[in-house]
């Protein structure tokens, strides 16, 4: 007999079409054509359905014999629906009768209850109904069952036009056939109705009967009542239904005569022939019910029907036999109905015959439960799954939610995530498939495998790159073009983390980085995080499907991954479109391994402060019912049959899914759970299982089971476990050759034992508990030696083959061993050198956390006296460790490292890097003046002294940089530049002297420090000195910045616009020639600031945005926030749409808060409040607590009070807001405060209005002349309309009305011409007030109306509403 469940009989198009015309001639039937379909007797339906399938498959070449047709998928599906309808009908009537009897026996006749006379009850219980049923109890019920099928009306054009009138039947043409005939009618009475019906059909039927579209089936109502009289009647009813089902599923065959006789069990009919067929199972399992399964339905089995179906019918037929006393016989019709429902809903589980060859050879494969059809079977987590899906839907629609699944190890977290992935994407069997509703990416953290930066996240996106490369070429091209356009050469950093990205970029993209310092990033970690964010933004913009990122085992998340994940979730690209980010992140985490200080907890808490909700899902042990569902699905047996086994498993495992899985595998190995050849299904020995003694925890249970493994398998698993939960096969093969120990063959045995899996070129532990057990098999005192040995073996290969990835893996293994595993000082030096190389590789991959770990470990392997014996190695390890500590904000450790370097370094040159880091540390710590002191002293030591005053002078050293010294340096620089052409400068040699390169870096840093403390008059000397060094020693990466700052000073301070702008453009050209991108953001920023004074204001905005991108690419987030501030400010003053600007400003605030840039936030918040007031939104709170990088919270007002430039900007914005809303008293007060601070910040303030407001308090013609001159000398485009409007207001105040009228109109025309819609609106409003105050209301209405229109165009809803009110009031 075939193992498969169904014989699929279909047409060529995959369907089984019903053809009533082929059947009607040979089938006598009673039918009711109505709107609800057709009713037909069961016997007639069986014949009709069989004939329909036979005729539909005749032309396909399939075997269409009656027996094969009865086993087809289509027929079985219909038959199951009929059987379930009958059982459901009996259950409904039985339940109703119980309620009625209960009400009659127990009710008091009040409260709406039903009260029955006892004599009536006795008549029901033992009356003629029961006697009649007892007389019929062995008869087949098929003649009393009716099936309702589908019926479709033929289209008019399908009828043959033979000249006769066609009769179209509707529900009004005849009475519908009752589903429940009267008690007195017999089934044959239906023939009368059929005859009446046929008389209406003489003109030809307008219907086609669809026998394979079964809607329901019903049993005659009088029989149903009789079958529910008492328990005995129900028992006989089950038996009779079994006989009926036999006929139904066999395609019309009758139950053999010897089966069904009271007192004769199927054991007697089996005889010795059946007994000889039993296999080697224990006699305890050879129960009478099991034997009856063989005999009662032997004809059904010979047809090839599923074993589960045969067993069900056997248990029904044998229910009345005195010998059938097993647990498997049906006690109630409810059990029968539930079993039928399961067969209908999950035929792939409950109607799938056990593959005996596979089960006997491979055994119980728990790792692939439910894998036959690609589905992930799910047990008892429906509520949690629904919660996760709801979180997902909210996230992809609003973009502000993540989810975390918590629970102990083995509780089912991965199963829940897999089911979610299957439901919301097209993911199957752990692979990503295109075309679903979402793209699912997954990664996993590993406690012992953190040797690659962002490995869990980068591997997930690397998998996406592999998927993307297989999609249509247009999508690949779109992503490739966007990546090359937006990321440029920086994309090489991403390729290092995601090698499969090469497949998208193509061969023409150069993605190699041979020198870890060649890129010159300000902060390589921040740069890589930004590039990752950009990558995510690009792929989200290029695809319609949501992107889902899942990370498992987040309890082992590393600091670098936390920072990256946090930025991906919080920091969408500022220049991204308004398209909704369809992105969702969720993870799994062991709840007993995280606390309030865990990096994951802190990250989620941080997300909450930014308005990103976290949905927490806690998983607990499974219930008894869920355990039974799991066992039932695993064994492909109905839950009614597996309940005894499930109860035992639940008791022993307390409902832990993984524990149950491991215990079932162990039961199979002990032959307590095995496939029965006789019964073709799984069977078990309940008593022996119940008597087993097993540990309470799954960890102890697995450890015990490991001791039963062959020694070589256990040894190989222990080696594998040292490298983490998954290891590449190539690495194992390399290690096997190096340590001369068999590994591959024993691990293949472990695969067969369902301990590890072998896929995608790697070995994987099937569960982290298995990994932990294998690792625990190594004694704690021996683990360090194992790690050290394996690391050394792989390290030798990595060095020989120059394999960076293998080197990092090898050194990580060595460091797990630690200094205690080192045998002598020579080996310690060799290991320290390997750590140095590994740390450099980690820095190249922008993982400074990992690099710092390598450098620290390298230092730990050095013995006492290493500064004398291994000076070069020690200096390099300490310098690089200090650099990493600075990047990682580990300031305490950094100070220790710097002290060591400054103490043991042999010369000044060896101390330079430590000095530079120390200066940066002082700046970050707020000790700016000390940083300035050290910088000036270091410059003097490098031969680039700015002032001859000794650095230990107690007052501020920059006070000794006098105006005369500055003038001297500036004049010297001007003279030298005048001698050189642009062509000469563009072809200048590259600076190679390390001391001069460092001097350039110190001068650039000094420029920032002095600007920060407000000593702007001193800045020109630093710029002059940088250019002088450049002209003498060659171009450095900072030389373009010096030229741009030189031009900037000429434009803004000296007002030499032509010369200054020339050097700005020269600096931009030099920047493009430089191989370093580290300082692009500063160069572009100062260029934009200069352009603001020379060219149309609108053009500067895009340049500030370019500076923002360049800053983020280099990791200079402080500069990026400064650029973002100016970008939004320029957008406001240039008249960009306020609604879009408000969104941009909110995003900027979010970024400033994320990067803890308190200074820029204090500048920016007042701008945001002003814009929100203009667009009519509720303003932000006046005081916002700002958190610094150290975690301290500061008040916004306190920060502004301490920084004059911040207070100046605050007063200026408050002045403008009060003026624009005509709050003149407040505007006057703010103006007074602005000018009281102005002299303290000579080089600060708004880019245009600083120069205007500098003279605005002077009376008379002097200020007018100055403003007009400024408008002519600088940007006419930007300042002309402002000058005209200011002149119009002046003429209005002087009561020169005729001149004022012309100037107002000129200001409006100029604003429109130069695309300042904001100032066009303001000019119209001021003109309206001018005409209103001079008594010309009609004109004022026109100008106010124009102002309203332009304010609305700008997005200033509040101002537009004010102008509208003015018009209505006039």
UniProtKB/TrEMBL annotation:
Orc1-like AAA ATPase domain residues: 378-569
InterPro entries: AAA_16, Hybrid_Histidine_Kinase, P-loop_NTPase, TPR-like_helical_dom_sf
Residue ranges of the region described as Disordered: 158-189, 275-297
Highest taxon above the source species: Eukaryota
Signal peptide: none
Bias kind Low complexity: ranges: 287-297
One Pfam family cited in the UniProt record for this chain: AAA_16
Name by which UniProt lists this protein: AAA ATPase
């Amino acid at each position: 007999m075939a193992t498969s469940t169904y014989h699929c009989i279909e047409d060529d198009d995959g369907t089984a079409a019903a053809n009533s015309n082929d059947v009607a001639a040979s089938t006598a039937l009673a039918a009711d054509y109505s709107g609800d379909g057709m009713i037909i007797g069961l016997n007639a339906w069986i014949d009709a359905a069989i004939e329909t399938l036979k005729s539909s498959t005749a032309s396909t070449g399939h075997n269409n014999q009656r027996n094969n047709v009865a086993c087809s998928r289509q027929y079985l599906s219909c038959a199951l629906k009929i059987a379930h309808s009958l059982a459901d009908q009996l259950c409904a009537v039985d339940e109703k009768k119980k309620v009625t009897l209960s009400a009659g026996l127990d009710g008091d006749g009040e409260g709406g209850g039903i009260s029955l006379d006892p004599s009536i009850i006795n008549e029901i219980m033992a009356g003629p109904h029961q006697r009649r049923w007892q007389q019929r109890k062995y008869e087949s019920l098929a003649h009393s069952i009716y099936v309702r099928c589908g019926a479709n009306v033929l289209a008019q054009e399908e009828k043959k036009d033979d000249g006769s009138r066609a009769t179209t039947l509707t529900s009004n043409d005849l009475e519908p056939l009752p589903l429940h005939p009267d008690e007195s009618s017999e089934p044959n009475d239906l023939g009368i109705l059929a005859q009446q019906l046929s008389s209406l059909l003489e003109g030809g039927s307008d219907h086609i009967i669809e026998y394979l579209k079964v809607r329901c089936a019903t049993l005659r109502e009088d029989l149903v009542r009789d079958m529910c009289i008492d328990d005995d009647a129900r028992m006989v009813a089950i038996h009779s239904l079994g006989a009926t089902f036999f006929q139904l599923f066999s395609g019309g065959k009758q139950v053999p005569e010897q089966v069904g006789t009271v007192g004769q069990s199927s054991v007697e009919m089996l005889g010795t022939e059946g007994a000889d067929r039993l296999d080697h199972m224990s006699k305890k399992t050879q129960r009478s019910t099991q034997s009856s399964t063989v005999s009662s339905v032997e004809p059904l089995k010979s047809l090839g029907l599923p074993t589960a179906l045969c067993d069900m019918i056997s248990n029904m037929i044998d229910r009345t036999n005195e010998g059938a006393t097993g647990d498997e016989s049906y006690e109630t019709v409810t059990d029968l109905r539930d079993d039928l429902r399961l067969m209908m809903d999950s035929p792939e589980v409950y109607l799938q015959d056990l593959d005996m060859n596979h089960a006997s050879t491979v055994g119980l494969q728990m790792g692939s439960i439910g894998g036959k059809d690609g589905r992930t079977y799910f047990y008892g987590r429906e509520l949690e799954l629904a919660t996760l899906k709801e979180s997902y839907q909210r996230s992809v629609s609003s973009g502000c939610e993540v989810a975390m699944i918590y629970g102990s190890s083995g509780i089912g977290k991965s199963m829940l995530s897999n089911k979610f992935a299957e439901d919301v994407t097209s993911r199957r069997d752990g692979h990503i498939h295109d075309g679903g509703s979402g793209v699912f990416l997954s990664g996993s953290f590993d406690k012992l495998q953190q040797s690659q930066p962002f490995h869990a996240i980068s591997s997930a996106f690397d998998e996406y790159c592999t998927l993307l490369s297989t999609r249509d070429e247009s999508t690949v091209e779109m992503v490739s073009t966007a990546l090359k356009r937006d990321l440029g050469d920086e994309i090489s950093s991403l390729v290092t983390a995601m090698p499969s990205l090469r497949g998208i970029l193509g061969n023409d993209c150069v993605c190699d980085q041979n020198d870890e310092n060649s890129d010159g990033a300000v902060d390589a970690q921040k740069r890589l995080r930004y590039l990752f964010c950009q990558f995510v933004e690009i792929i989200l913009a290029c695809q319609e499907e949501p992107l889902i990122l899942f990370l498992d085992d987040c309890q082992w998340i590393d600091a670098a991954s936390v920072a990256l994940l946090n930025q991906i979730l919080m920091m969408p690209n500022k220049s991204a479109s308004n398209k909704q980010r369809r992105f969702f992140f969720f993870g799994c985490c062991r709840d007993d391994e995280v606390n309030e200080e865990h990096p994951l907890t802190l990250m989620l808490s941080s997300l909450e402060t930014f308005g990103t909700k976290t949905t927490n899902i806690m998983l607990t042990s499974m219930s008894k019912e869920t355990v039974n569902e799991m066992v039932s699905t695993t064994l492909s047996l109905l839950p009614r049959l597996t309940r005894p086994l499930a109860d035992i498993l639940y008791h022993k495992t307390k409902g832990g899914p993984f524990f149950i899985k491991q215990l079932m595998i162990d039961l199979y190995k002990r032959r307590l759970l095995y496939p029965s050849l006789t019964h073709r299904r799984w069977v078990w020995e309940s008593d022996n299982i119940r008597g087993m003694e097993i540990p309470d925890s799954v960890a102890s249970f697995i450890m015990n089971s490991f001791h039963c493994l062959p020694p070589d398998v256990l040894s190989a698993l222990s080696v594998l476990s040292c490298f983490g939960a998954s290891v590449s096969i190539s690495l194992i093969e390399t290690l096997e050759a190096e340590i001369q120990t068999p590994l591959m063959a024993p691990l293949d045995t472990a695969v067969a034992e369902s301990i590890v899996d072998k896929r995608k070129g790697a070995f994987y532990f099937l569960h982290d508990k298995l990994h932990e057990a294998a690792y625990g098999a190594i004694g704690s005192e021996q683990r360090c030696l194992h790690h050290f040995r394996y690391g050394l073996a792989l390290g030798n290969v990595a060095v020989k083959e120059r394999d960076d990835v293998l080197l990092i893996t090898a050194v990580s293994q060595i460091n797990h061993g630690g200094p205690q595993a080192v045998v002598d000082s020579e080996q310690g030096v060799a290991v320290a050198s390997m750590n140095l190389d590994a740390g450099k590789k980690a820095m190249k991959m922008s993982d400074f956390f990992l690099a710092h770990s390598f450098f620290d470990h390298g230092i730990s392997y050095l013995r006492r006296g290493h500064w004398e014996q291994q000076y070069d190695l020690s200096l390099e390890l300490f310098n690089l460790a200090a650099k990493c500590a600075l990047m990682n904000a580990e300031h305490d450790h950094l100070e220790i490292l710097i002290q060591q370097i400054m103490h043991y370094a042999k010369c000044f040159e060896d101390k330079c890097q430590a000095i530079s880091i120390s200066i940066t540390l002082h700046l970050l710590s707020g000790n700016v003046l000390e940083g300035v002191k050290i910088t000036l002293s270091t410059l003097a030591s490098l031969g680039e002294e700015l002032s001859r005053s000794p650095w230990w002078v107690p007052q501020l050293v920059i006070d000794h940089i006098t105006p005369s010294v500055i003038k001297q340096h500036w004049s010297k620089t001007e003279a030298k530049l005048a001698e050189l052409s642009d062509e000469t400068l563009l072809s200048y040699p590259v600076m190679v002297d390390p001391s001069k390169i460092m001097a350039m870096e110190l001068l650039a840093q000094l420029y920032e420090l002095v600007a920060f403390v407000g000593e702007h008059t001193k800045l020109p000397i630093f710029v002059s000195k940088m250019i002088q060094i450049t002209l003498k020693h060659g171009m450095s990466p900072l030389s373009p910045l010096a030229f741009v700052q030189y031009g900037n000073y000429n434009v803004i301070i000296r007002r030499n616009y032509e010369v200054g702008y020339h050097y700005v453009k020269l600096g931009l050209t030099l920047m493009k020639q430089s191989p370093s991108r580290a300082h692009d953001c500063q160069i572009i920023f100062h260029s934009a600031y200069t352009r603001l004074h020379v060219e149309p204001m609108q053009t500067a905005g895009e340049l500030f945005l370019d500076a923002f991108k360049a800053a983020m690419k280099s990791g200079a987030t402080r500069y990026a926030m400064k650029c973002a501030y100016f970008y939004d400010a320029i957008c406001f003053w240039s008249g960009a749409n306020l609604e879009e600007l408000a969104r941009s400003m909110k995003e900027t605030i979010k970024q400033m808060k994320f990067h803890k840039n308190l200074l820029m936030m204090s500048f920016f918040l007042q701008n945001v409040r002003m814009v929100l007031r203009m667009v009519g939104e509720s303003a932000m709170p006046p005081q916002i607590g700002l958190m610094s990088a150290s975690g301290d919270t500061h008040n916004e007002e306190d920060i502004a009070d301490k920084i004059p430039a911040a207070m100046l900007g605050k007063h200026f914005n408050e002045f403008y807001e009060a003026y624009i809303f005509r709050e003149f008293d407040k505007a006057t007060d703010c103006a007074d405060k602005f000018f009281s601070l102005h002299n303290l910040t000579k080089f600060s303030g708004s880019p245009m209005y600083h120069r205007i407001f500098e003279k605005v308090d002077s009376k008379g013609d002097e200020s007018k002349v100055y403003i007009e001159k400024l408008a002519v000398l600088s940007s006419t485009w930007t300042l002309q309309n402002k000058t005209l409007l200011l002149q119009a207001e002046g003429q209005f105040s002087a009561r020169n009305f005729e001149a004022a009228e012309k100037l107002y109109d000129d200001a409006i025309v100029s604003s429109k011409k130069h695309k300042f819609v904001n100032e066009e609106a303001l000019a119209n409003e001021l003109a309206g007030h001018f005409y209103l105050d001079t008594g010309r209301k009609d004109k004022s209405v026109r100008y106010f109306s124009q102002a309203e229109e332009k304010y609305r165009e700008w997005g200033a809803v509040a101002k537009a509403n004010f102008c509208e009110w003015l018009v209505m009031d006039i």
